Amino acid sequence: MPIYNPNHAWRKKAGFVAPAAAPRIVSVGTATPPRKYTQEEVLELFGETNPKVRSIFLGGHISSRHLYLPEPVDGVLPEESNQELLDKHLSGALEIGSRAIKECLHPLGLDPYDIDFFSVVSTTGFLCPGITAHLIKKMGFRESVRRIDILGMGCNAGVNALQTMASFATANPSMLGLQLCVEICSAAYVDKRNLVTAVVNSLFGDGAAAILVRQDPADTWQQGPRLIDFESLIIPDAIRAMRYDLDNTKLSFFLDRDIPYVIGANVEKPVGRLLGRNGLKSKYIDHWVVHSGGKKVIDAIEYNIGLTDHDMRHTLQILRNYGNLSSGAVLFSYKEFYREGLIQSGDVGVMIAMGPGTSIETALLAW
Amino acid sequence: MNHYKTLKVKQDGNVVTAFLIRSDGRNAINMQMVRDLSNLIDTVEEASDVAVLVLRGNADVFSCGIDLGDFPIERPRDIYGLQKWERMCRDMERMNKFTVAAIQGECTGGGLQLVLLCDARIAESRAVFRLDEVEKGFLPGMATFRLAKYVGLGRAKNLILTGRSIRAAEALDWGILDQVCEQASFEVTLQQTIQSLLPFHPVALEMARRLLAESYAASYDEFLGHYLAAQHRCIHSEAFRRLIEKAGGKKDSQ
């Protein structure tokens, strides 16, 4: 017997009906580097003694992250050249990217050869040819596969790419779209012994997440949610709030300290528009699938749209165990909802990812 | 305001008053009343011209508690109606208006649970409060969660486990009530209570209330993060901008 859910009753009364024909996320797979480090271990490897830096690492609500760190020399991390960082980005992306894809495709008995559209999102390294080309070679996709590499969009890009996936799936019913978000954040680490780089180095982790999207009338809520709608917000005034700076030859990520609050102050706009035009209200949404950006931005979102730590439980848990996984994070949270096993037919969820631009991307999911 | 089967609702300026009204005269809380209260909360939340919601009963009874006649005897009983009640309580507790409970006479069980949700709670001196659920063999809802925050664990145990009645004066002494008055001055006291809550700053109200609700639950560091997020929202509100304009404001130095 289905569990009584007051949100369902409210939505029925409000006349909300999700369109029957819509693209669905039908599978998800994730992968991380083999080595996992606690925050204390990373501090040790950086040889970090500055108490301010140590408190940033230890007070950030992160306990551990999976990282591709080089072998320590005399107990301390050697400095990696730009070439080594770029090589690490590619080799790491191929290793965990292919594992995430296999985990995503395997349960449906599919192989890379079956994929019609392949999209890869990454911000943590620049390369040509793109990661799609390398993974096609490594994994045996068809030579005719349509593909796109989305570079440099940052943490929000998982949802931007999902918009493209949904458009493809809608335009090409029953064809298969595969999206991979793969971020080797440890390939964008620069240690300048200051607080700016400490925040970045304490926060970001490595991980890959793949999802399969298709529009097929045979699929039901048990396969996964329909992608009903998207709403974006870009805040051009805050264009410099999150960015890469060039530090000699290396890309060094910069995060403005006000950014959690700027996102908090603006998050109601896209969420309000997304829900408003679908006749929904935030208090009657069943699931919130939110990017694990950091504790402050999670707090700011909670207090601006009235969510609780319970609504954010998977987001907080992903942050605690993996750090900020950039574009893949929101898909890691999404996977946790499945692991929890509480999703019911008719549930509605909102996905939120925020990142450079400054941008906030939202998606409406209906099971 | 809409028409409800179990509530008489009237609006006077920016104050909406909902009288619990059941034909039994004792305002037993049935599922219809839970649905009516949920709908009322939705309506009042969206009414931009409303600042305060007052809950009251009749001159002799606020509410005698849950309507046991609303449960099936033959069919298996499930928890979902009670879950619906808790959801309504949570929505009431977190709504974007000030809430006031004004109690005359009997206030038992679910009635007292409603009172605990409100921002301000006043009663006339002959009001009597009681949580009789445990004595009857079930539970006083999430009052087991809320009451101790008002009165401390010892008094909460005493009230919940013995099912004893306390008079308005004692409820005032314990902090369940803000004010107690004589029957003749009840309406005046209610008006004064409403005035004492105004002016209405919805953002500050929601943020302050939410932080207060977390005050016994969160660690200092967790709470600090929440407070900063909430205060950031407040200092970016229109009300705060007007406030600093009035104060003259600090000019940017070159």
Task: Tell me what the structure shows.
The complex is a heterodimer of chains A (367) and B (254). Chain A has 367 residues and is an alpha/beta fold. Chain A is 36% helix and 22% strand. Chain A has 2 domains: 27-214, Thiolase/Chalcone synthase (Peroxisomal Thiolase, Chain A, domain 1, 3-Layer(aba) Sandwich); 221-366, Thiolase/Chalcone synthase (Peroxisomal Thiolase, Chain A, domain 1). A 5-stranded mixed sheet of chain A has the order 1-7-6-4-5. Chain A has a 4-stranded mixed sheet with strand order 8-13-12-11, sandwiched between helices. Chain A has a two-stranded antiparallel ribbon with strand order 2-3. In chain A, helix 3 (51-58) packs parallel to helix 7 (195-203) and helix 4 crosses helix 5 (131-139). Chain A starts with 5 loop residues before the first helix and ends with a strand. The mean pLDDT of chain A is 94. With 254 residues, chain B is an alpha/beta fold. Chain B has 2 domains: 7-197, 2-enoyl-CoA Hydratase, Chain A, domain 1, CATH 3.90.226.10; 202-246. Chain B is built from 11 helices and 10 strands. In chain B, the strands form 2 sheets. A 6-stranded mixed sheet of chain B has the order 1-2-3-5-7-10, with helices on both faces. Chain B is globular and about 70 Å long. The A-B interface holds A 3-4, 6, 59, 260-261, 264-265, 283, 295-296, 299-300, 302-304, 306 and B 38, 78, 80, 83-84, 87, 91, 94, 206-207, 210, 221, 225-226, 228-230, 232-233, 236.
How widely separated are the two ends of chain B? 54 Å
- Low-confidence segments of chain A, ≥5 residues, pLDDT <50? none
Classify the beta-strand content of chain B into a percent band: 15-25%
Number of domains of chain B: 2
Largest interface here, residues on each chain?
A-B, 17 and 20 residues
Output the number of helix runs of chain A: 12
Please describe the biggest sheet of chain A, giving its number of strands, its sense, and whether it closes into a barrel: 5 strands, mixed
